[in-house]
Amino acid sequence: MSALPRYVPSAAVPSTSLHDAPWRRSSRSTGMNNCVETAPLHRGPSAGLLAVRDSKRTAGPALLFSPSAWERFLNSLQ
Prior knowledge:
Elements: E1 6-8, H1 15-19, E2 24-25, E3 36-40, E4 50-54, E5 62-65, H2 67-76
Antiparallel strand pairs: 1-5, 2-3, 3-4, 4-5
InterPro entries: DUF397
Protein name: DUF397 domain-containing protein
Pfam family, one: DUF397
């Protein structure tokens, strides 16, 4: 079983890991910043995980998902 998603305060992940990540906004975004953004992390201790954050709080915390946990989460929404 893969790791469950976990809340990670922005101070716990090196700022360059989240700051330099290639963030993508949800295609369901209305342009009013009421959505989420995702970014695959390629460096540091969180490499291989997917970060998810609130688009209104880009400097705020992120949730980190393993690829399989993220896929299960998305499948549960259908």
